[in-house]
From TrEMBL:
It comes from Paeniglutamicibacter gangotriensis. It is a multi-pass membrane protein. Belongs to the CDP-alcohol phosphatidyltransferase class-I family. Keywords: Lipid biosynthesis, Lipid metabolism, Membrane, Phospholipid biosynthesis, Phospholipid metabolism, Transferase, Transmembrane, Transmembrane helix. The chain crosses the membrane at residues 20-40, 106-126, 138-156, 168-189. The lineage of its organism: Bacteria, Bacillati, Actinomycetota, Actinomycetes, Micrococcales. This is CDP-alcohol phosphatidyltransferase family protein.
Length: 206
């Protein structure tokens, strides 16, 4: 079964909706609402519930993309709202982990610093969202982060301590952070290429 790009219809011409009120966008908004719930659960040391919340967060990222393609509800709002939801969730989750000493500081640095550079770069070049296509590498990176973080929490529960969960989550998150930096470099280069193409009047294909 195809995981990345699931729900894509072959030989089908998708519409681009301008309305906010689509099923995928509503799922994305639920993702936003789950972030503060996760923070409260983690600070309260309810790691089991926090793990469940993270699992829902991770699955919703896949579900809203599937719904957009399957229901033909790809929208202009969704194109920027979905990556913003990803960025907010990852930054807040990483910061919460480091602040509560569940994870080392390199986790938040490797996520936050590249994102700050990309956001600054986008504001300078485009005064907003550059509307770049999400790469497969970026999707794999996000999947690893959203799988590794629940495992990290499970490793801090009473029954998870002393098991291999901690080692598995550390390796998954380390790989995800490496991919995050690589993906950030790719987006940085693509943004400059798109900016140059637009300034020269050339058509940008992505």
């Amino acid at each position: 079964m195809r995981i990345i790009g699931a729900g894509t219809r072959d030989n089908f011409e998708y519409r681009l909706l301008t309305t906010f009120w689509t099923v995928p966008n509503l799922i994305t908004m639920v993702r936003f609402l789950l972030v503060p719930l996760f923070v409260w659960q983690t600070l309260s040391m309810h790691y089991g519930w926090a793990t469940l919340t993270l699992a829902v967060l991770g699955s919703s990222d896949w579900i809203d993309g599937y719904a957009a393609r399957r229901l033909d509800q790809i929208s202009t709002v969704g194109k920027w709202l979905d990556p913003v939801a990803d960025r907010v969730a990852l930054i807040v989750i990483a910061t919460t982990f480091v602040a509560t000493k569940i994870a080392p500081a390199w986790l938040v640095f490797s996520i936050v610093i590249p994102d700050i550079i990309l956001i600054t770069n986008a504001l300078v070049l485009f005064h907003g969202n550059p509307n770049l296509r999400v790469s497969t590498l970026g999707k794999v990176r996000t999947a690893l982060l959203l799988v590794g973080t629940p495992l990290l929490l499970l490793g801090n529960t009473d029954w998870g301590k002393g098991t291999v969960l901690g080692d598995i989550s550390t390796w998954a998150l380390a790989l995800a952070c490496v991919l995050h930096v690589v993906a950030a470099i790719q987006y940085f280069v693509q943004a400059h290429r798109k900016s140059r193409a637009l300034k020269s009047g050339s058509e940008w294909s992505g």
